[in-house]
Write a structure and sequence with these properties.
single chain, two-stranded antiparallel sheet, IclR-ED domain-containing protein
Length: 57
């Protein structure tokens, strides 16, 4: 499963922003990737991206 697919399975009001450490750039995703955070979503994202890579603000 890709990140975009995972985000679309958890729609909600919170905007999703990606931070690229290598370049220091932020990328705000479109509203279609806004999410409703949950422990399940965070766990799945960290399994995909690595431990301690997901932050909610």
């Amino acid at each position: 499963m890709q990140l975009k697919q995972l985000l679309q399975l958890h729609p909600g009001p919170l905007a999703t922003v990606l931070f690229y450490e290598s370049t220091g750039k932020l990328l705000a995703l479109s509203d279609r990737y806004s999410i409703k955070p949950s422990p399940d979503l965070l766990r799945e994202m960290e399994q995909m991206l690595g431990q301690d890579t997901v932050k909610i603000r």
